[in-house]
Amino acid sequence: MGTIVIDEKYDKWRKMLKEDISRKRYLHSIGVSNTAACLAMRYGCDIWKAYIAGLLHDCAKGLGAEEMIRVVQEADIELTKVEKSNPELLHAKAGSVLARDKYEIKDEDILEAIKYHTTGRPSMTLLEKIIFTADYIEPNRSGIPDLDGIRRIAFTDIDNSIVLICKASIDYLKQKNRVIDVTTVDTYEYYRNLGKEE
Length: 198
Ligand code: DGI
Ligand code: FE
Ligand code: FE
Known about the structure:
This protein is mainly alpha-helical. The protein has one domain (2-141): Hypothetical protein af1432 (Orthogonal Bundle), CATH 1.10.3210. It has 11 helices and no strands. It has helices at residues 3-20, 23-43, 47-56, 65-74, 81-85, 87-101, 108-115, 126-137, 147-154, 158-175, 182-197. Helix 2 (23-43) packs across helix 8 (126-137), helix 3 (47-56) crosses helix 7 (108-115) and helix 4 (65-74) crosses helix 6. It is globular, with a radius of gyration of 16 Å. The mean pLDDT is 95. Residues 28, 58, 86, 88-89, 117-119, 135, 169, 173, 178-181, 184 line the site of 2'-deoxyguanosine-5'-diphosphate.
């Protein structure tokens, strides 16, 4: 695909997204898109895939919990009990289905990056790591302790920034007495141990 073709598509997706989610969420998505493109430049990932995955990662955020469950189940994707009872986790899988069926994204790498953007997973692809990280550090995020430190580390050692993001998320969820998904813990442990081996 030539750059001009993708640019026109990006504009179409951007306009669709604006209709599907709140203004605040839309601005966050633009922030993630741009930040993901920067990280892709830094780490040698496909810049356009990062730009598109960043834009669409939260495309299901406008759906209600029931709707998200229906969308995912109709696509024959399994939902865990934890996902069913915690709607904040559902938008990742629902988003990958919506991106495929409504936004007509055919690229599996982009769809996987959307699917795993909330919990991460062990051995993420570079694109998955970039979307996971960009989601946390994009310019509109605020009120997170040492966010500037994490932002700097994201551009020097992305695996280490993933450890810090997972740790901060788990601490936050514990503090709020929320159920922690096993994948969230697996991601944390995988990237923490990766750092120890070096
Ligand atoms: O969609 P965003 O707000 O941009 O960010 P996100 O997709 O990373 O996370 C959405 C929410 O999901 C956020 O409030 C934290 C929450 N979350 C992340 N991991 C877990 C989780 N919630 C539960 N209950 N368990 C988790 O493991
Ligand atoms: Fe999200
Ligand atoms: Fe997000």
